[in-house]
Amino acid sequence: MPCQSSTFAYSSSAGLAKRGGSEPQYAWKTGVSGTTESRVASASDALESRFLAPLTIAQLSDLHCGSPHFVPDLMERAIAEINDLKPDIVVCSGDLTTFGFKEEYAAAKRYLDRIACEALVVIPGNHDSRNVGYVHFEELFGDRSSVLRAAGVTVVAVDSTEPDLDHGQIGRGRYGWIEEQFAAEPADLRVFVLHHHLLPIPGTGRERNVVYDAGDAIECLQRAAVHLVLSGHKHVPYAWKLENLFVVNTGTVSTLRLRGHTRPCYNVVEVSGTHVDVWRRYPFHGQERIIQFDLATGEYEKYTGRIEREVSAKR
Prior knowledge:
7-stranded mixed sheet; alpha/beta; globular; Purple Acid Phosphatase, chain A, domain 2; disordered N terminus; 6-stranded mixed sheet
């Protein structure tokens, strides 16, 4: 089934407007409901980047193999769609399992082995660290934190989980290591991956699952000049811009553990030159843009109005 794009025509940023389509639900949300505004970073805030060759990153998360809410058809379809994309990098940002049991890990491994991409980045989520599940993770997937360097891109992925707990943290002892990995080789795109989110996500109730050391972790990523953060955890796709850092969350790819009217989905990051598009794709049901931005200028448009309506009451 061909995917239908959700693009736009209106933008006060000419460089982004030329990409065509329909008006965004809003770009930079102001305090007045229904208004749209484009935010353009000043020259001093602009990100330095050379032009990247076309690059695609697929991000899936929160598979929850073993859950009564797991839907095999969704996972099968997502794998087929991702393979059709022929991505350069695939990121699986945690919660492969439900209880961290060996059988659940084995099922998740069988699914991920069918993704036709050699550059596969996998980290555990809080569900994977239950019942000493991190032992099975290491047996099947290797280190819980990893570094991938390919085609001008550096991806640093970190295990943010705590055994048998839903919350997470990066840990001050790892900030230096993270910065060293990003500094080790020049990169046009620097991506950080963790399971928990660094910023609150709308529609997720009382916010208690942002990583405990989010403030220090964000400062660490700013020092490392990271461009993009990919995370999962609360099953709601969303995007933020914080100074020169773009923070993108994805939903659950293959379960019906959904918040409000959200749907199972995964993210696709498309890079061309300095332009980056992030899409949320629904298995069987097309795609919508979440955010687009320019690495060189910091210009961006975000498309989160629909997501917010899906998780918000009318009053």
